[in-house]
Write a structure and sequence with these properties.
- The structure is a single chain.
- The chain is of the alpha/beta class.
- The strands form two sheets. Strands 1-2-10-7-8-9 form a six-stranded mixed sheet, sandwiched between helices.
- Helix 8 links the parallel strand 7 and strand 8.
- The longest helix has 19 residues.
- The chain starts with a helix and ends in a 9-residue tail after the last strand.
- It binds pyridoxal-5'-phosphate (PLP).
- The site of pyridoxal-5'-phosphate has 19 residues, from helix 4, strand 7 and helix 8.
C-alpha cells in the first residue's frame, strides 16, 4: 500500500457532516507584529467551526460518530473533566444525529453549571460524575453494559476521541489546507491526549506536505506524548493498510512541555500574556487549558527568532473558548 493509496482510503472513510468545512484561515498581521516574529502568521480557525462551539474534537467526531452509526449504535458514551470540550462536542454530535449521549465526568457535580458543563446539560446528555480520572474507564464500561442490558446500542469513545480513527479527522484537516492553497512551514497546536498531533502528523505524510508539526503540551512530559502519538500513528498505519513506520511519525514528532507551568489549566504569566495579546490584536479567544498555552509557545519561539522571514507559521486554533465562560 502506497501513501497515495492510503490517502484515497482516508478520503473514502464514511463521515457525518457536523458543520460546514473548511474552517477559515486568517492572516494575523497584528498579532505577528505584537509578537515581533519573522515571517507570516496565519491561524486555522477550528475555534470558528460552525458546529456546537467547534474545536478539534468536532473533526474527530465526524469519523467516530459515522462509525458508531454504521455499527447501528444509538448512544455515544464518553468521558472527560467537568469542563471537557470533548464531552460538549460529543453531546452536540449525538443531539444533532438523533442519538443519546452519556458522559462520565470526573469532578464534582456543579451546583450551577457553567461553560461546557452547562452546554452538555442543555444538549440533553446523561451525566455520571466520578471522583477520579482513574474511575472513568471502568465507569464507562459499566454504563455501556447497563445501557446494553436495557436494550440500547452504546458506542464507547475513549478520552478525547484520540483513537486512530478520531485522529484521522485532523489528517483530513491537512487535506483541507491543501485545498485552501496554504501549506505552512510550521504548525503549532496544543497537544494532550495525542490525537490531534497524531492526525496532523499523519495528514502531512498522507498529503505529502513538508510542514513541521510542533505540539505544545497541556499537561504531560514529552516522552509520554511521544509514546501516545506514535501509538496512535501506528494504529492509523494499520487502519489504512500501510506498513509500520510508513508515516514517518518517529522522525516527524516534535513537542515541547515547557509551557504548561504548574499544570493543566493553571495560567502562567506567558499564557496570560498570550491570551490578552490574541484578544487585543485579533479578537481571538484562547483558554488556559490548551490554546493560550500553545500560543505562549508560539510567541516564545517567535521571539527567539525561530520563525524566519519568507516562512509561514500557522497557529492551529483547536477551540476551547467555551472554557473562558466556565
Ligand atoms: C481546545 C483543545 N485544544 C487541544 C486539545 C488537545 O487535543 P488532543 O487531546 O487531541 O491532544 C484539546 C483536548 O484535549 C482541546 O479541548
Amino acid at each position: 500500500m502506497s501513501l497515495a493509496a492510503a490517502r484515497e482510503r482516508l478520503l473514502a472513510l464514511p463521515t457525518v457532516r457536523l458543520g460546514e468545512l473548511p474552517t477559515p484561515i486568517d492572516t494575523a498581521w497584528r498579532l505577528r507584529d505584537a509578537i515581533g516574529m519573522g515571517g507570516k502568521l496565519v491561524v486555522k480557525r477550528d475555534d470558528a467551526l460552525p458546529f456546537g462551539f467547534g474545536g478539534n474534537k468536532v473533526r474527530k467526531l465526524t469519523l467516530v460518530a459515522a462509525a458508531a452509526r454504521a455499527d447501528g449504535c444509538d448512544t455515544l458514551v464518553t468521558c472527560g473533566g467537568v469542563q471537557s470540550n470533548h464531552c460538549r462536542a460529543t453531546a452536540a454530535a449525538a443531539a444533532a444525529l438523533g442519538m443519546h449521549c452519556h458522559i462520565v465526568a470526573n469532578g464534582e457535580r456543579p451546583a450551577h453549571p457553567t461553560g461546557n458543563a452547562r452546554l452538555v446539560q442543555l444538549l440533553g446528555a446523561e451525566i455520571t460524575y466520578v471522583a477520579d480520572r482513574t474511575d472513568r474507564n471502568p465507569t464507562m464500561a459499566r454504563v455501556a453494559a447497563e445501557l446494553q442490558a436495557a436494550g440500547r446500542r452504546p458506542h464507547v469513545i475513549p478520552l478525547g476521541a484520540s483513537t486512530p480513527l478520531g485522529a484521522l479527522g485532523l489528517a483530513l484537516g491537512i487535506g483541507e489546507l491543501v485545498t485552501q492553497g496554504i501549506v505552512p512551514d510550521t504548525i503549532v497546536a496544543a497537544t494532550s491526549s495525542g490525537g490531534t498531533q497524531a492526525g496532523l502528523i499523519a495528514g502531512c505524510a498522507l498529503f505529502e506536505v513538508p510542514t513541521r508539526i510542533v505540539g505544545i503540551s497541556a499537561d504531560d512530559p514529552v516522552a509520554e506524548i511521544r509514546r501516545v502519538v506514535l501509538e496512535i500513528c501506528g494504529g492509523i498505519e494499520a487502519l489504512l493498510g500501510l506498513p509500520t513506520g510508513a508515516l514517518g511519525a518517529a522522525e516527524r514528532f516534535e513537542a515541547d512541555a515547557g509551557f504548561f507551568g504548574d499544570g493543566y489549566g493553571i495560567p502562567t504569566p506567558a499564557s496570560q500574556e498570550a491570551q490578552a495579546l490574541a484578544a487585543r490584536t485579533e479578537a481571538l479567544f484562547t483558554d488556559h487549558w490548551y490554546t493560550a498555552k500553545a500560543l505562549s509557545g508560539l510567541i516564545a519561539y517567535g521571539r527567539a527568532g525561530r520563525f524566519r522571514d519568507g516562512q509561514t507559521t500557522m497557529f492551529w486554533h483547536t477551540g476551547g473558548q467555551v472554557g473562558l465562560l466556565a
